[in-house]
Amino acid sequence: MRRFFSKTMKLGTIAFALLFVFSLPVTLLAHDIVGLGAHVGVHHDVGNLSNQNRSISLDPQNSLLVGFSFKLNAYFFFLRTGCDAAFVINRGNVLDGSDKIEHSSFSYLALPLFAGFRFPLKEAGEFYMGAGPAYFIGQGTIELDGGPSEDVETLSLGYGFVTGIEFKLLKLIRLYIEWEYFDARSEPVMNTEGGSYDNFHLDFSGHRILLGVIYYII
What average pLDDT does the chain have? Predict the structure, then answer.
């Protein structure tokens, strides 16, 4: 895992350097080069319990996402990073009582790094799509059937995809809508032997929808 993380960070640094170098010729001639954004969003089925055990009946956890983004554009390429914090709207509940886990509640910080392509939509804005690594700092509580609750925490590295659209509101301000998908699982954090989750891990995989505003300072 450490080697994978190290290699990913090196590739991300190289991608950032190349993108910055290629952007230099246009930074003095064009707008929409460096943008700072803020957004809100939702993440459904946090913990991904429904995929870890498909036999249970589950009321999945939903979370509110609040975060900021940094976007660097160069020609038809972009680099986007930022930070997202997930806050629990409702915890996950196992409804049928057939599993050792009864309730779960997870929160996290996500630090993605996307690189990809952007396509102008005439004067309306742009469409963009990309992929890259994502680092998750997560913690939560798991309540077991007939037992005490257990607190868990983890650091996880995964990867994700992003597709978004920006609409011009003012000269330097745009509204953006993004769909993201991440695949990120932790190492085992607890053993629920006797239930369906032997060597239970925190799973941050899933879909996210974000709505935000970005201001281009250059």
Answer: 82
